[in-house]
């Protein structure tokens, strides 16, 4: 049985043209403020998808190349992740071709740069099926993310009712006063606040090994559990996209 990303239907009398549903599900990890944990979230999400036998690409827009370095460290016994170093210049090919994932890629995770200019990144954001915004529990980060979300809504023209945007509390300890203030703020945004990822050294250890926490031999069950609301939200978004076939005409 063919899955949507593999389905190709010949068009009668149309020569070499084909109708295809060779599609992927795109997730962007964004926040204009550095140090919010975008790369940690992007690499762990990419490793999760890949470990689920989904053909996965990771697009690294950050000039520091942290996601690229992480991919280069992946052990041979880990599932393969295609790296697209978007922070580099395309050589002898168009920019669009350079950024294109391999054929039949099912999941694309985008690690955006710090200091993200929403207006310049508008097209990439509008091509995404889900936009995740990690935010740290600090007054400075709360202030910064409020302005960033306003830019996404106003400059990128992404509407709340589309349900594509969600916020994640990152490196958080729930029993602290600053987390309670963050939680109160996030719930006031009228944007889904879907998960709280723990402040733990497991992410550091996994990153050093070129893995995600789901691939580590020993991992605290609480860390895995903290991802479940996020993964469930993404699963719902995936269902919304793939429940009806969409056909595109290729020449």
- Report the total helices: 8
Level-1 CATH class name: Alpha Beta
What kind of sheet is the major sheet?
7 strands, parallel
| CATH architectural type | 3-Layer(aba) Sandwich
Extended strand count: 10
- The CATH superfamily bears the name P-loop containing nucleotide triphosphate hydrolases
- Relative strand content: 15-25%
Distance between the termini: 25 Å
Radius of gyration: 19 Å
Q: What overall geometry do the principal axes of the alpha carbons give?
A: globular
Q: Which sequence of SSEs, written as H and E, runs from N to C? A: EEEHEHEHEHEHEHEHHE
Mean pLDDT: 85
CATH topology: Rossmann fold
Lateral arrangement of strands in the main beta sheet: 5-4-6-3-7-8-9
Structural class computed from helices and strand pairing: alpha/beta
- The unreliable regions are 1-21, 247-251
- The amount of helix comes to 25-40%
The structural domain count equals 1
Would you kindly provide a written description of the structure presented here, covering whatever features stand out?
Mean pLDDT is 85; it is low at 1-21 and 247-251. The longest helix is centred in the C-terminal third of the chain and has 22 residues, at 221-242. This protein has 251 residues and is an alpha/beta fold. The protein is built from eight helices and ten strands. The two termini are 25 Å apart. It has one domain (23-239): Rossmann fold (3-Layer(aba) Sandwich), CATH 3.40.50.300. The relative contact order is 0.18. α1 (38-51) runs parallel beside α2. A seven-stranded parallel beta sheet has the order 5-4-6-3-7-8-9, with helices on both faces. Strands 1-2-10 form a three-stranded antiparallel beta sheet, with no helix packed on it.
């Amino acid at each position: 049985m063919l899955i949507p990303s593999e389905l190709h239907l010949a068009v009668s009398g149309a020569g070499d043209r084909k109708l295809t549903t060779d599609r992927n599900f795109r997730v962007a990890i964004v926040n204009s403020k550095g140090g919010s944990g975008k790369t940690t979230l992007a690499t762990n999400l990419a490793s999760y998808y890949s470990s689920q036998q989904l053909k996965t690409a990771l697009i690294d827009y950050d000039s520091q190349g942290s996601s690229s370095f992480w991919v280069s460290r992946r052990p041979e016994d880990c599932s393969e992740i295609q790296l697209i170093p978007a922070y580099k210049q395309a050589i002898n090919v168009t920019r669009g071709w350079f950024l294109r994932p391999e054929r039949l890629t099912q999941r694309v995770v985008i690690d955006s740069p710090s200091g993200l200019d929403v207006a310049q990144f508008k097209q990439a954001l509008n091509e995404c099926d889900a936009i995740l915004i990690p935010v740290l529990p600090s007054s400075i980060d709360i202030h910064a993310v409020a302005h960033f979300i306003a830019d996404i809504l106003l400059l990128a023209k992404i509407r709340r009712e589309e349900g594509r945007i969600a916020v994640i509390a990152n490196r958080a300890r729930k029993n602290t006063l600053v987390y309670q203030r963050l939680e109160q703020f996030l719930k006031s945004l009228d944007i889904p606040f879907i998960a709280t990822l723990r402040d733990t050294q497991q992410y550091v250890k996994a990153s050093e090994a070129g893995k995600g926490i789901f691939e580590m031999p020993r991992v605290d069950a609480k860390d895995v559990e903290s991802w479940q609301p996020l993964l469930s939200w993404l699963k719902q978004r995936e269902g919304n996209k793939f429940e009806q076939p969409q056909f595109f005409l290729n020449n």
